[in-house]
Amino acid sequence: MTGWRLGWMVMPPGLVDAGNRLAQNLYINAPTLSQLAAVEAFDCEAELEAHVARYAENRRVVLAALDDMGVTSRAPSDGAFYVYADVGRFTRDAEGLCRRALEEAGVAFTPGTDFEDPTGPVGGSRVRFSFCGSTRDVREGMEALTQWWLKEFEEVLSTVQKELS
């Protein structure tokens, strides 16, 4: 609740005492109206649980689609609503891949060069998918991307299948 002098912190248990000593400097003189509004805003557990359930389903949809696409090397995706994946077996040009997918399949995702050293060896072979939209949008997007991907990388996938056999 930026500007309202209200909020919360998540910290390791060993830092709670120190955090409590500093906390008064963060929220001293919060207006009564802000405090009352915050109580209402922070008391929406049902809404929070609905978001958590939606993100879990969206994550499942994205991971299943990536499996279908042969994109199996991924960072754990249990800290946010993103999946960071290695597409190096398909391309070393993540920016070009993202551009083509947007133009040809109508699906946007982000090249790894936005998150790593663009001159380094791995940013061009990694991409990030977001699953923060509605489940319907995420499902439709991943279906469109999967169809496009399977055509775009048919030869690579055929080679990978032979290697796995």
UniProtKB/TrEMBL annotation:
Keywords: Aminotransferase, Pyridoxal phosphate, Transferase. SUPFAM superfamilies: PLP-dependent transferases. One of its GO terms (biological process) is amino acid metabolic process. Pfam families: Aminotran_1_2 (PF00155). InterPro entries: Aminotransferase_I/II_large (IPR004839), AspAT/PAT-like (IPR050596), PyrdxlP-dep_Trfase (IPR015424), PyrdxlP-dep_Trfase_major (IPR015421). GO terms for molecular function: pyridoxal phosphate binding; transaminase activity. Its cofactor is pyridoxal 5'-phosphate. Residues 1-145 form the Aminotransferase class I/classII large domain. Signal peptide: none annotated. Belongs to the class-I pyridoxal-phosphate-dependent aminotransferase family. PANTHER family: AMINOTRANSFERASE, ASPARTATE AMINOTRANSFERASE. This is Aminotransferase class I/classII large domain-containing protein. It comes from Heterosigma akashiwo.
